[in-house]
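Memo to structure team: turn this sequence into structure tokens by end of day. - J.P.
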Amino acid sequence: MKLCTTTGDFSCHAKTEFDKIKELSLAGFRYADLSMYGDEAKAFMHDNWREDVKKLKDYASELGVTFVQAHSPAFETLETLDPNENWQEKLDQTIRSIEVCKELDIPMTVVHAGVKRNTSKEETLKLNKDFYNLLLPTMEKTGVMVLVENVGVQDNNGRYYLNSGERLKEFIEYFDHPLLQACYDVGHGNVFRNQYEDILTLNSHLKAIHYNDNDGKRDMHCAPFLSTLDNYSVIKALAEINFSGPFTFECTETIKSKLKEFDKTNNLDNLSLDVLRAYEKALYETGKYLLSAFDLFEE
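Reply from structure team:
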């Protein structure tokens, strides 16, 4: 597998996508997940965006970095909980993020499914199908695959979440289009302690992963070996289904979250760049160790 991490690792320090890619390459990573999770897609919402994307692609190539997957903007697709959120603006950015993937030769991007209060399973599936249908013309035009991600949240307030492999598979087969498939976040799965079965259930529908650790109770996005994740079972399951996607870290909160718990009075929320660089190098070596143990590491 190709060892990959998200450009979001350096969101706290790097001002541009160029800076983020440089930092990833310095840590040893040769494959990158382009994070457009927050407001990053705004940078491409202008007439000459393709020129900017080409410059980014050329720069990454000079550094020996290849983009292999992406994450599109996250927003409340079915129920706007934040009254300040501009739903149409986020939808436009999501569509643009798919177009950006096409220009960067990225084959797939994650777009979160939505939930709504006091809504049945059947209606939730229908509403999500309606939402992804808004993306379908762009998906078909570009050939970029959109991935639905499992969440680490229990059903609550009448909301039905796609929080298991079985539920993800059911929705993907309900949508019934080859360009809509699954991304499995093993940390989210660890909240329910069901990663092995989930991965086997998804099987050929699984095209990407987000790899991170937590305490089994909450979504923490820690690096492997820092908490309770059963690395052996997860990687064994990936090997058993012949998973061919990249091995992608999403461990952006590894040290930051710990510092918040350690002392909230010393303004330690933001790591120094030197500490973050050291962490990123350790993350690369951890991933290489995990994959090499199963003879799955790919240069």
